[in-house]
Amino acid sequence: MACFAVTPVAPMKDTLRITEIFFSLQGEARTAGLPTVFVRLTGCPLRCQYCDTAYAFSGGELLTLDAILEQVASYRPRYVCVTGGEPLAQPNCIPLLEKLCDAGYEVSLETSGALDVSAVDPRVSKVVDLKTPGSAEMGRNRYENIVHLRPHDQVKFVICSREDYDWSVSKVIQYGLAERVSEVLFSPSHGQVSGRQLAEWVIADNLPVRMQLQLHKILWNDEPGH
User: Where does Mg(2+) bind (predicted)?
Assistant: First the structure.
């Protein structure tokens, strides 16, 4: 009987499906403008109408957690952002976040807010979306996540219309978000609300929020890898 050499395969429990790992400037949130390594996980259960990362819905490459950490370390970063897709759709995102924190990085997690965040390492800064009516996925909001938000976390609203803006203001007030987290972020949906219009609404209401523009759209026209 012929014998064949078999290359050892890492157990599935030690792997994640990754769309890309790249080094760029953080385009939004509290660390906007800072050099950051992005780890983009593959897959997302949501289909927001304004999604700009549909290329991460499928495909990707299966990598071990150690291989991911090795690639991240090669850039010698201070900041690491785990994003998607929806990173928490893959259970091994949780141990990855822990390992990144253990390695000494300042770690953020960009999540849709549709999945449970309670198991996320408390050292991670969670950037949690609350999906507005205009997103087409408002029904997926998991409001139970709000009690798990810590002072260094962030909540983001993508504003598609005046209706979205008014709805978002009501949620900021209802859940006391400005007092619960470090940043409440209002972003204009690209091509639907202008940055100037959103800025005027925020100023008129003197809101305790940070209005933001996505730096990567301005600098690189939202090209993958930036």
Answer: 53
Q: Which residues are annotated as a binding site for substrate?
A: 25-27, 40, 83
- Residue ranges at the known binding site for [4Fe-4S] cluster: 44, 48, 51
Binding residues for S-adenosyl-L-methionine: 50-52, 85
Model-level pTM greater than 0.85?
A: yes
Question: What digits encode the pLDDT tens for the residues 155-184?
Answer: 999 999 999 999 999 999 999 999 999 999
pLDDT per position as a tens digit, 50-64: 998 999 999 999 999
**Structural element, H or E, at residue 17:** strand 15-25
Which structural domains are found in the chain, ordered by start? 15-220 (3.20.20.70)
Positions at the binding site:
25-27, 40, 44, 48, 50-53, 83, 85
Question: What's the token pair of residue 180?
Answer: 């619960």
The beta-carbon contacts of 146-153 under 8 Å, at least 24 apart in sequence, are 146/175, 146/177, 146/180, 148/117, 148/118, 148/120, 149/180, 149/181, 150/122, 150/126, 150/181, 151/180, 151/181, 151/182, 152/125, 152/181, 152/182, 153/125, 153/126, 153/127, 153/128, 153/181, 153/182
85: preceding bond cis by omega (within 30 degrees): yes
Q: How many residues does the chain have?
A: 226
Among the listed residues 176, 158, 178, the one whose alpha carbon sits nearest the alpha carbon of residue 168: 158
Binding residues for Mg(2+): 53
